[in-house]
Amino acid sequence: MKLSKLLNCLNEYTVGTSQYSDVNITGIQMDSRKVVKGDLFVAISGFESDGHKFIEQAIVNGASAVVGEQSLSLKVPYFIVNNSRLALGRLASMFFDFPSKRKKVIGITGTNGKTTVSYMLKHILESNGFSTALFGTVSYTVNNQVYESTNTTPNPIQLQELLAKSLDEFAILEVSSHALTQARIEGLEIDYGLFTNLSHEHLDYHGNMQAYFKAKASMYNFLKPDGKALVSEFDFWGDKLSNVLGRKEIPVRTLGCSGNHKLIIEKINLNGETEFTVAIAENNYNINLPCPGLHNVYNAALAFLTAYEIGINPKQIVKALESFPGVPGRFEVVQHPRGAKFIIDYAHTKDAFEFCLQTAKEHKAKKITHIYGFRGGRDKMKRENMIKASSSMCDHFILTLDDLNGIEKEEMLNELSKLNLQFGQNKGKVIADRTIAIQTAWKKAQAGEWIFITGKGPEEYETEFTLPVSSDKEVLTYLQEGISEHFA
User: Fold this and answer.
1) SS3 state of residue 50
2) What local confidence, expressed as pLDDT, does residue 488 receive?
3) Maximum distance among all alpha carbons in the chain?
4) CA atoms within 13 A on the CB side of 97
5) Which residue, 132, 137, 138, 139, is CA-closest to 109?
6) What GO cellular component is one of the record's annotations (predicted)?
C-alpha cells in the first residue's frame, strides 16, 4: 500500500522530515527486531521500554518510513502523531483493509467469565453451522487453526492480520481492560458488545474501580452504527453500564433474575445439577447445563441472549448449551482414585473464588481444600480479601507460589506467611513448591472431598518446581499415572 494512502486513516500528523517520498509500504511493525525492508515502523512509548530508542535499528533493518511522537530528524519519511498507540491501531486496520467490517464481531469484556462465555458462544455458533474465530486467554483460533495466545487480547498488528486471514463468519474477542487502555482494539468494529461483571482486579494498573469501569465501558466506543450492547445486570456495575450506554442512545439488551430485562433467569436448581429456565419474548426454555455453578448459569444466559439476538433458534441454543464440552482450565475436573474431585480453574479474584467454592457446597462436598498463590508484580490490594474468602468457605487451604514475575521468592513466601497468619483462621499453611502442594493434597484426598487448584488454569509454569511437569493439569496426570495403582 502506498504510504500516502495508508496515512489517510490518521486524523492529523506532522511531517517530521524535509523530504517525503511516497514509498510503498509492505508491512507494519512495532518491534524493531521484526522490521524488514519496506515496513512502516511505529515507535510506541511502552511501560518497560521506549520504541523511539529503536528507530535507528528499525531503519538499519529496512524500515521505509517511521511514525512516532517525538521531534526527530531521520533519513526516511517520518511522521509525528500525538498518540502512537492510537495511530498503530488505525494504521493496522487500514493496511489490512478493515477486516472487522467483513464479519460479525463479538467483543466480551468484564472481570470474570469472558473465556467461558466466548467458548459457549463459539460452540453455539458452530453447532448451528457458523464458522467462528476466537481470540482469548487460552488461545487464538482462526480458520480452525490454533495459535498460541500472547495476551488475552492480541496487539493491533496481530489482531488485524489474523482477522484479515480469517474466512470465518464470526469473530469472538475477549477484550481486557489493559487492551482497551493500550488501544489494542483501535481500528476494530464490533457488532455485539458483551459485559459479564466487574470486581476488584487490576487496581494496581487502573488505580480504582471507577477507572477500571471506565476502561471496560470504553469497549462500546467501538460498536458499529447498528451494534448492540448485551449487559449482565447481576451486580452494581452492570446496572451502571446500562445507564451510561442508555444516555449515549446505544441499544442495550439486559439480563437478570428479576425486573424489566430482555432475558430473565428463573427456577435455578444447583442441588447436584445445574438446571435453570430462561424467559425471553414470552417463552420459557429449560436448560440442563453440564458446567456446575451459579456463575456458569450467568455465563450461559449471556451466551443464550447473544445467540438469540444473532437470530439462532432458541431450541437450538438450548441443545448446544446442553452439549457444551467446557473450557480447558475452567472448572476442569480430575477424579481421584479414592473418590475425591480435583478441580483446576483460572480463578484469581475474590468473586471467582467464591463462585468455585460455593459450587462445591451446592454439590454437598464433604470437605473443601483450596490450593493457590499470588502472582508477583500484580495487585496486592485484593490478596487479603481472597484469603478471607478462601478461609471462610474452605476446610483447609494451601498457599503456594504462582509466577513470581521478578519478585524474590523469599519476599513472596514472607507475604504468604504473613497473610495466612493474619487472615487464615488457622486453616491454612504455606508450601512453597506448587507441585509438592498439589501432591500433598493428592496423598491426603478422601472420598467426597473437593480440592481446588486455582490461578493458572491451562497456563504453563514460569517457575521451576520439583516434579517434572509444566502445568497444574500435568501434575495431576503425573500423580494419576504414578500413584493410582496404590489406591486400586
Assistant:
1) strand
2) 38
3) 80
4) 6
5) 137
6) cytoplasm
pLDDT digits over 109-131, tens only? 999 999 999 999 999 999 999 99
pLDDT of residue 150: 82
* Residue appearing with cell numbers 484426598: 445
Look at residues 429, 434, 433, 428 and name the one whose alpha carbon lies nearest to residue 459: 434
Q: Are 405 and 378 in contact (CB under 8 A)?
A: yes
Give the residue among 191, 114, 124, 96 at the shortest CA–CA distance from 151.
Answer: 114
How far is residue 433's CA from residue 469's CA, in Å, rounded to a whole number?
A: 12
240 Cα distance to chain centroid: 22
| pTM confidence score | 0.88
* CB burial string 142-155: b at 16+ within 10 A, e below: beeeeeebebbbbb
In sequence order, the β-bridge partners of residue 24 are 2
Average pLDDT over residues 370-380: 89
The strand pairing partners of 343, in sequence order, are: 333, 452
Yes or no: is domain 99-322 CATH 3.60.10.10? Answer: no
Q: Which residues contact 278 (CB under 8 A, 6 or more apart)?
A: 263, 264, 265, 266, 284, 285, 287, 301, 304
The domain 332-487 is classified under which CATH number: 3.30.1330.40, 3.40.50.2000, 3.40.30.10, 3.90.190.20? 3.90.190.20
Nearest partner of 420 among 457, 372, 360, 365, judged by Cα = 372
Per-residue pLDDT band for 204 (boundaries 50, 70, 90) equals low
484 pLDDT band (50/70/90 cuts)? Answer: very low
Name residue, grid cell 478461609: 391
Question: At 105, is the secondary structure helix, strand, or coil?
Answer: strand
Can you give the length of the chain in residues? 488
CATH superfamily of this structure's domain 3-95: MurE/MurF, N-terminal domain (3.40.1390.10)
Q: Please list, residue by residue across 218-232, b when 16 or more beta carbons sit within 10 angstroms of its beta carbon and e when fewer do.
A: bbbebbeeebbbbbb
Task: Identify the residue whose cell numbers are 436448560.
Answer: 287
Helix-then-strand count for the chain, H and E: 16, 22
Amino acid at 50: D
Angle CA(271)–CA(277)–CA(283) in degrees, nearest 5? 165
Query: 253 is written with which cell numbers?
Result: 439488551
> Residue 145 — φ and ψ, nearest 5°?
-100, 130
Strands 263-269 vs 275-280: parallel, antiparallel or unpaired: antiparallel
